[in-house]
Design brief:
The protein has 4 helices and 7 strands, in the order βαβαββααβββ. With about 140 residues, the protein is α/β, with parallel strands linked by helices. It has a 7-stranded mixed sheet, with helices on one face. Strand 6 (about 120-130) and strand 7 (about 135-139) form a beta hairpin.
Length: about 140
């Protein structure tokens, strides 16, 4: 993780999302780490905007996966593994079909499936500065 970027406001997120994509132009799998309320879903919404997603973006907390479409008709897959209890739940959705599709995969709570993440996964850590509430992004 060579980049450390401080966000003082949600207005910074589009710029940070653009920087992430520019830093990893060939990457397709992004894993987002952070405590509950760190801003993972909010950041993914900005990232989807940068990727030209035309659909409404929201957390797939209960569905495990949402599929969005870009303006070019390409899928973007958004995973939220917070509620999984066993890795079998991920195996049952056929995660390989998504992870190895060549399309963008955005993963919340990847620590639950760490051992099946592809080696090329870009890890993004979001922390909150305690006194200011600023969000700090590492990637």
């Amino acid at each position: 993780m060579n980049n450390k970027i401080v966000s003082k406001s949600p207005d910074d997120l589009l710029s940070i999302a653009s920087q992430l994509i520019k830093a990893h132009p060939l990457a397709r799998i992004f894993a987002f780490y952070g405590k509950m309320g760190a801003g993972k879903t909010t950041f993914i919404k900005s990232l989807c905007q940068v990727l030209n997603v035309s659909d409404m973006v929201n957390s797939p907390t209960f569905a495990l996966i949402n599929q969005y479409q870009t303006d070019l008709g390409e899928p973007v897959f958004h995973f939220d593994f917070y509620r999984i209890k066993k890795i079998d739940e991920v195996l049952d959705i056929g995660y390989e079909d998504y992870f190895f599709s060549g399309f963008h995969c955005l993963i919340e709570w990847p620590e639950k499936i760490e051992h099946i993440l592809p080696d090329e996964t870009v890890k993004v850590v979001i922390t909150e500065e305690e006194t200011s509430g600023d969000r700090i992004f590492y990637f």
